[in-house]
Structures are given as structure tokens and as C-alpha cells.
Design the sequence.
């Protein structure tokens, strides 16, 4: 049988080649390359709520001795190598979150709006792909004041992009960015971010509410104080039908490094010691309660759970599900 098939293949091969050579040129016309990435939006269910993570973009950042400030560079490189990650750079993702409770459509942060770095500008495209219309958003909850989280509030002319949303902003961060003494101590990078946040929030002046720890936004959605990255940083706790999720904002970044080494100081944290305390407290709760988490700078879609063994935490990303639910 095998011999017969092989023999037939050999005998017919020259004929096949001859046929191909005489086919009209159009038979080889290549499909045009599309040249753009697929939409970055991922939807999952949490009890009765619908949760969507939206990819705003990614940015390649250099890893040098300034990145982790309390351990030697070789230790950082070793940790990256053990995760099979590049040691000179990392690709930082930017993910914001939409929660539809059935009664309200809520965004937690709004992405960069293309104002943090020109390469990160997919937020509005991915919202549209996810079927989320800015005019339908009832509420925006901000985790902190940094530009990569608030840039998308306004357009290039400073006009509000969410015509019907009430905006909640951490009170301590608002004090920080409007306080003369605090501003005097900021470097140019922080000053730029603080200036932008003040301007963007002014566009929502008539519907801005400052909030603190424990704030209940709607039934099932409340604030957890998580200072360190910024003075007023907040996580958002989401609970529906006994299922829990914490939207982390920037309280935990780069899970491959900071879950294995929660005591490391990251350069972007305003108060690193406080950030470490917050991170450890959150991780203990997340593990003890089996809570799902979304990290703003985790690799998209940035949702998963955490385990602990031998004093080290580990992130377990959820598998992409083709079916919603
Ligand atoms: Zn951030």
C-alpha cells in the first residue's frame, strides 16, 4: 500500500510541477497583509457582574540599576533570568478595567489617552471593539493620579471625553497634587503628571467626588487604601454573588519580580517602604481569600490568582476563555 502510494507520488510529481508552471499568474496572488494587532479586550464574569480588561498598549522600558533601588543589579538580572525574561528591558503593559454591574457601567482608570507615550494609544480603539461607548459610562474610579491612568479623561483640547460619568478621585492624591509644599518636592516627571491630572479633573469639576478608604461606590464595589505608589493610591474591591476581585492599580506591578520579591523597592513608588507594606498586606489577603486580581501593568489581560509557597508569592494568569462566563 505504502509502496503503491509513494510510487504514484513519484510518477505524478513531474506532471504536477508542469501544471503549476502553466497556471495563470493570478493563481499566486498573495493576500494583503493586515499589519495591525487584534483588538486587546478580554471579558469575564464575576458573579452577576461583567468585567472587561482593556489593553491601552505596551511600552518597552530599560532595566538598569535605577529600576530596583534596594538590591544589586546582578540579583535583579538573576531573578529575570530565572523567569526566562530579558534582563536589559521589559515590555510594560497598560490595562484598564470596565465593570458592568447590570445597573451601572464603571471604569477603573481610563488609560493614557496617548499622552503618556505616543506608542500607548489603543485604549479607545479597544473600548470600541469591546462595545463600550464613553457616553454610556456612569462612573470612573481612579486609583491614583499618574498620567498613564488619567490621561484618557480628556481630548487634546482638554475637553471631557466621558459626558455622563461621575469621577471619583482619591482625596489624598488630590491634596498631594494641589499642595504647594508637596509640589515643590516633585521632580519634573511627577510635576508633569500632577499638572495633567489637575487640568483633566478640572474638566469634570461639576461631577468630581474625592474619596477615601472604604468608600462604597455602588453595592459590591468599594475602595481599599493602598498607599505607597502614591500617597492616596487605592485598589478597587469588587464582589458579586460571593466572588471577589481586586483591581490593583499600581499597588503591585511586574508580577514576575514583585510577587517573588515583595520587599523590593521599585523606582516608580513614591514611598517605597510604605509600598512594600501595602503590597505584602494585599498579597496576604489575596492568597487567604483566593481573590482574583487585575494588575494595571501585568501582561494583558492581566487577570489571575496568587499562590504562596516558601514565603514567595506566584501569579497564575487565567487562561484565555473563548466562551464568555
Ligand atoms: Zn501605572
Sequence:
Amino acid at each position: 500500500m505504502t509502496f503503491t502510494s509513494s510510487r504514484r507520488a513519484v510518477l505524478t510529481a513531474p506532471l504536477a510541477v508542469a501544471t503549476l508552471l502553466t497556471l495563470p499568474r493570478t493563481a499566486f496572488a498573495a493576500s494583503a497583509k493586515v499589519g495591525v494587532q487584534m483588538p486587546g479586550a478580554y471579558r469575564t464574569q464575576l458573579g452577576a457582574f461583567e468585567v472587561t480588561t482593556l489593553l491601552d498598549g505596551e511600552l518597552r522600558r530599560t532595566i538598569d540599576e535605577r529600576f530596583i533601588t534596594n538590591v544589586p543589579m546582578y540579583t535583579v538580572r538573576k531573578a529575570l533570568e530565572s523567569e526566562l525574561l530579558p534582563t536589559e528591558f521589559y515590555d510594560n503593559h497598560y490595562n484598564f478595567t470596565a465593570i458592568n454591574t447590570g445597573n451601572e457601567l464603571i471604569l477603573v482608570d481610563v488609560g493614557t489617552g496617548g499622552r503618556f507615550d505616543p506608542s500607548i494609544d489603543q485604549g479607545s480603539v479597544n473600548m470600541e471593539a469591546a462595545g463600550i461607548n464613553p457616553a454610556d459610562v456612569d462612573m470612573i474610579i481612579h486609583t491614583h493620579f499618574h498620567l498613564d491612568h488619567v490621561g484618557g479623561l480628556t481630548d487634546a483640547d482638554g475637553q471631557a471625553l466621558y459626558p455622563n460619568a461621575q469621577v471619583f478621585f482619591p482625596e489624598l492624591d488630590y491634596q498631594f497634587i494641589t499642595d504647594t509644599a508637596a509640589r515643590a518636592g516633585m521632580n519634573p516627571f511627577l510635576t508633569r503628571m500632577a499638572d495633567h491630572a489637575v487640568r483633566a479633573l478640572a474638566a469634570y469639576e461639576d461631577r468630581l467626588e474625592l474619596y477615601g478608604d472604604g468608600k462604597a461606590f455602588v453595592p459590591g464595589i468599594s475602595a481599599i487604601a493602598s498607599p505607597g505608589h502614591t500617597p492616596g493610591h487605592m485598589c478597587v474591591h469588587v464582589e458579586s454573588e460571593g466572588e471577589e476581585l481586586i483591581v490593583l492599580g499600581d499597588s503591585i506591578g511586574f508580577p514576575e519580580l514583585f510577587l517573588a520579591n515583595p520587599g523590593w523597592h521599585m523606582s516608580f513608588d513614591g514611598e517605597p517602604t510604605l509600598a512594600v507594606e501595602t503590597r505584602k498586606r494585599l498579597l496576604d489577603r489575596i492568597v487567604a481569600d483566593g481573590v482574583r486580581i487585575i494588575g494595571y501593568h501585568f501582561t494583558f489581560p492581566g487577570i489571575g490568582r496568587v499562590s504562596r509557597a516558601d514565603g514567595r508569592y506566584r501569579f497564575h494568569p487565567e487562561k484565555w476563555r473563548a466562551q464568555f462566563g
Remarks:
- The first helix runs from residue 2 to 21.
- The chain has one domain: 41-317.
- The pocket of zinc ion is lined by residues 146, 148-149, 250, 296-297 (CB under 6 Å).
